[in-house]
Amino acid sequence: MPDKKKRIEVLDGLRGLAILLVFLFHGYYIWDAYYPFGKLYAGNLLFKYGSLGVQLFFLISGFVILMSVEKTPGFRIFIKNRWLRLFPGMLICSLIIYFTAGFFYERPFGIPELKSLLPGITFINNSILERIFSTAFPVLELSFWSLYVEVKFYVIFGALYFIFNRNTALAGIFILYVSAALLQILIVHQLLAENAAMKIYIGSFIHFGWFVAGALTYIYYRDHDKRYLYLLIISLVCSVFYAYKFHDPVLYIYLISVILVFLGALFWAPFGVLFESRFFRLVGFISYPLYLLHENMLIASMIKLHRHIPQIPYLLLPALSFIFIGILAYTVARFLEPAFQRLLKKII
Q: What b-and-e string marks burial along 66-94, b requiring 16 or more CB atoms within 10 Å of the CB?
């Protein structure tokens, strides 16, 4: 039987790796129009494909959510627990972003409107709210998109699990993924015209394969049942096809590397020790508020730093800005979020 404490420490460390990969993508690659150094690091593959840290987050989520749902007596309690886990951090970070945007006016997304808070605190993506209310909801933080996907997974998987059973829930989530992947392939080959509703559907469910793979990893990790190992391999192979539309062989290599790191950390103890280190676990501990806060604030901080201290080497600009945001995220994770969670638990 696996050691529960050890497993959680490894997963915390993997969360730390995931947010670091996302940071490299945002800090050195995707916002080159705003960086003081422009496209200087555009050729670095570690930076270019760092966004796949999100897929690592999804794998971890699938693992953890199945572990969590098996310990929960009902759907209502499961959703309440998930909401209590996500909402306090989201509200606190959204308010921090909103009220500091005037100072970080160099943000790529500019100064947000008050209504920009609504998608985050409701965990409903902007495009759906725009269709419901027939008005624009400017994006507060682009990185929030993955939380909208996560919440859809929680609701659908949880409902299927408690109405039917574990295997039905996993099959249902996987069918949603396969249907989204097939639609994407048809659109890529111009065999089907994409409309707004289809774009929302694909955008939501094209990532669901990773949750299934994470959940199957948990089952095999716990039970060592080879039937689930075979299902895990099939789900991982299928999940990689989420990247089909990009036509990028290197992207597949990077994805496979992310998968191997995830599996290696869990099943090969000498490798897992790396992610049990204090550094990775600390970054993993603050990964949720850090993920929510970092993108626009990171770019604005880099611009400010370069303006006032131009002697700072380009390579260090994102890292120094990230450390500053990390301290803010630690304050949220260590003090503000737990206090708000306790308050909400008393109210509920």
A: bbbbeebeebeebbeebbeebbbbbbbbb
